Amino acid sequence: MRVLGVDPGLTRCGVGVVEGVAGRPLTMVGVGVVRTPADADLGHRLVAVEQGIEQWLDEHRPQYVAVERVFSQHNVRTVMGTAQASAVAILCASRRGIPVALHTPSEVKAAVTGSGRADKAQVGAMVTRLLRLAAPPKPADAADALALAICHIWRAPAQNRLQRAVALHSSRAPRTPHAPKGRTP
Amino acid sequence: MRVLGVDPGLTRCGVGVVEGVAGRPLTMVGVGVVRTPADADLGHRLVAVEQGIEQWLDEHRPQYVAVERVFSQHNVRTVMGTAQASAVAILCASRRGIPVALHTPSEVKAAVTGSGRADKAQVGAMVTRLLRLAAPPKPADAADALALAICHIWRAPAQNRLQRAVALHSSRAPRTPHAPKGRTP
Q1: Where does the secretion signal sit in this chain (chains A, B) (predicted)?
Q2: Which residue ranges make up each domain of chain A?
Q3: Is A84 at the interface with chain B, CB within 8 A?
Q4: DSSP codes joined into one string, B71-114
Q5: In whole angstroms, what is the distance from residue B35 CA to residue B43 CA?
Q6: CA-wise closest residue to A49 among A74, A14, A75
Q7: What is the 3-state secondary structure (H, E, C) of chain A?
Q8: What is the pLDDT of residue A178?
Q9: pLDDT tens-digit profile of A137-167?
Q10: Is the pLDDT of residue B159 over 70?
Q11: Which of A83, A97, A121, B116 could be a cystine partner for B110, CB 3.0 to 4.6 Å?
Q12: What is the dihedral angle through the alpha carbons of A71, A72, A74, A76, rounded to the nearest 10 degrees?
């Protein structure tokens, strides 16, 4: 599966595309940052984020988009911008019918380093190792976007089983005992 | 001037269009609510908000869009949804080149009632009176959207003067003593 990870932000929105399946070596397809000028007004910044995300979707055609789930426990001003940039990324993917998954920062850290409290350097080091890169991607937002994509690939089998179960339950269809049990990719 | 006011929200996004200029009786052009199902996933909800706002822009062709400025002091879950819905509204307007203004809830309340701490009923009553309506618009989100539009019409002359001054300053052009001094609408 091919996943676009998005570490949302107005000033720097990290984007990274990873291809692979859980249990096999992963491949980095692309990594970068969508930037918008801090002195531009909010509307122009959101339009720039939209254009940037659209370019990444056009170029790399991901099957899934993984976006960092935003919490408001931190700096209020930053969090608002982050929530608004994430809304644009989620909107762009959903408009195309691409499934969007949200992962918390600690889920992402735990997925790639084994600890939900790992620091930026540790995440960068593991992303470099897991994707067999020559050096950690810079800036940290770009590395975080790749970590999100990796996290999604590794967590996806469980999430897909859960989504399938929810869909089965809400359709109220009688369960078929002969339904295929294989993991969907 | 014709202004679309947007009281952002994922479950109910209030929208109201008001036409007029400061110092003259105002006219309500339209009012309504864009709703999205609470059980739908975030991506589908943001797409539905986008479609709703686009319809209002298509139908009413406002010259300005006034959106409530979101603060994160309240309920964290609600605030994230509000910030994300507001991002979509701001994006839709900015994509079309329509200027977007943000007004805080207390600015809006103060504009229409004289007090920044007025309650919903008071805002609804003043919106009804100022727009000469038969009854207060329901739900409160719709009345709030109209109040935002009214607030923008009344505050706009001052804001436009400020924006013009900032633009002059940042272009570093020598000031022309003969520049027209009239208020831009």
Answers
A1: none
A2: 2-171
A3: yes
A4: -SSS-HHHHHHHHHHHHHHHHHHHHTT--EEEE-HHHHHHHHHS
A5: 14
A6: A14
A7: CEEEEEECCCCEEEEEEEECCCCCCCEEEEEEEEECCCCCCHHHHHHHHHHHHHHHHHHHCCCEEEEECCCCCCCHHHHHHHHHHHHHHHHHHHHCCCCEEEECHHHHHHHHHCCCCCCHHHHHHHHHHHCCCCCCCCCHHHHHHHHHHHHHHHHHHHHHHHHHHHHHHHHCCCCCCCCCCCCCC
A8: 42
A9: 999 999 999 999 999 999 877 666 665 566 5
A10: no
A11: B116
A12: 140
Res A65: pLDDT: 98
Burial of B28 (0-12, 13-18, 19+ CB in 10 A): buried
Length reported for chain A:
185
For A86, nearest residue in chain B (alpha carbons): B84
| Per-residue model confidence as pLDDT tens digits over A55-104 | 999 999 999 999 999 876 666 667 888 999 999 999 999 999 999 999 99
Q: Which residues pair with A33 in a beta bridge?
A: A14
Tell me, what amino acid is at B85? Answer: A
- A173 pLDDT exceeds 60? no
Stretch among A74-83, A117-126, B48-57, B96-105 having the lowest mean pLDDT: A74-83
Helix (H, G, I), strand (E, B) or coil at B68: strand
Active site residues of A: 7, 68, 141
Which of A36, A79, A90 to mutate to test binding with chain B, by most B CBs within 10 Å of its CB?
A90
Q: Tell whether B159 lies on the interface with A, counting CB pairs under 8 A.
A: no
Q: Rounded CA gap, B152 and B3, in Å? A: 8
Is position B144 annotated in a ligand binding site? no
Distance of alpha carbon B117 from alpha carbon B142, whole angstroms: 19
Distance from C-alpha of B149 to C-alpha of A154, rounded to nearest angstrom = 48
CATH homologous superfamily of A2-171: Ribonuclease H-like superfamily/Ribonuclease H (3.30.420.10)
- Respond yes or no on whether the N-terminal peptide bond of residue A139 is cis (omega within 30° of 0): yes
| 3 state DSSP class of B65 | strand
Residues of B in contact with A70 (CB under 8 A): 80
Q: What is the pLDDT of residues A39-55, one digit of tens each?
A: 999 999 999 999 999 99
Torsion angle, CA of B103/B105/B107/B108, rounded to 10 degrees? 90
Answer yes or no: are the C-beta atoms of B16 and B3 closer than 8 Å.
Answer: no
